[in-house]
Amino acid sequence: MSTIRLGDEAPNFTAQSTEGEINFHEWLGESWGILFSHPADYTPVCTTELGTVAKYKTEFDNRNVKVVALSVDGLESHKGWVNDINETQNTEVNFPIIADEDRKVAELYDMIHPNADSKLTVRSLFVIDPDKKVKLTITYPASTGRNFDELLRVIDSLQLTAYHKVATPANWNSGDDCVIVPSVANEDIPGLFPKGHTEVKPYLRMTPQPNLK
């Protein structure tokens, strides 16, 4: 079992889900993707997480992001649990949940951490770009629910920095100023960043977010 690192190709797999069989790479198509695991069905924190993801569908759609969840429970368990999620979270689950009873995908993505739990997946999360490259990995323990507002913020940064020669500073949110990457020469800044820039230090040059009007 190997650890998946940033820049690696996301391993492909075929698996059953609540929305039918999925070939992961084909399912992603030209979209960005989020693959995230939850420790078990019918657990309280996971119920709130999947309900939140369902409510954020428009936000993910606006960013061309497809979301798929996974646990090592079976398909019938998933389908029953979805009813509970819909009821308790006042939503409708609108994304597939992979049934990984044989732990094939969990092992492929190193989602089982034996010192945390020898059988259940931890809260692993992978953001994958349209080239099927892993752009972000986050791992939470089972006891801590994820912050999906933070995930949207990170996706905004990943998509911005993928297409513009900028980086995003601490606590950045979409609309805030960005850092011009060090590889950009000063003489090239006017052509790349017509909104202007501020030089705080020679290595710290700020510019308005370039992909906003």
Quick rundown:
The protein is an alpha+beta fold. The chain contains seven helices and eleven strands. Strand 6 (123-128) and strand 7 (134-140) form a beta hairpin.
Describe the secondary-structure layout.
Elements: E1 14-17, E2 20-23, H1 24-28, E3 32-37, H2 44-55, H3 57-62, E4 65-71, H4 75-89, E5 97-99, H5 104-108, E6 123-128, E7 134-140, H6 148-163, E8 166-167, E9 178-180, H7 189-192, E10 198-201, E11 204-207
Parallel strand pairs: 3-4, 4-5
Antiparallel strand pairs: 1-2, 3-6, 6-7, 8-9, 9-11, 10-11
Helix pairs in contact: 2-4
Describe the protein.
By secondary structure, the chain is α+β, with helices and mostly antiparallel strands. The protein has two domains: 14-146, Glutaredoxin (3-Layer(aba) Sandwich), CATH 3.40.30; 164-207, Antioxidant, Horf6, Chain A, domain2 (Antioxidant, Horf6, Chain A, domain 2, 2-Layer Sandwich), CATH 3.30.1020.10. Helices cover 30% and strands 23% of the residues. The protein has seven helices and eleven strands. It has helices at 24-28, 44-55, 57-62, 75-89, 104-108, 148-163, 189-192; strands at residues 14-17, 20-23, 32-37, 65-71, 97-99, 123-128, 134-140, 166-167, 178-180, 198-201, 204-207. The longest helix is centred in the C-terminal third of the chain and has 16 residues, at 148-163. The termini are far apart.
Question: What are the salient characteristics of this protein?
Answer:
2 domains; 5-stranded mixed beta sheet; alpha+beta; 213 residues; elongated; Glutaredoxin; 4-stranded antiparallel beta sheet; 7 helices; Antioxidant, Horf6, Chain A, domain 2; 30% helix
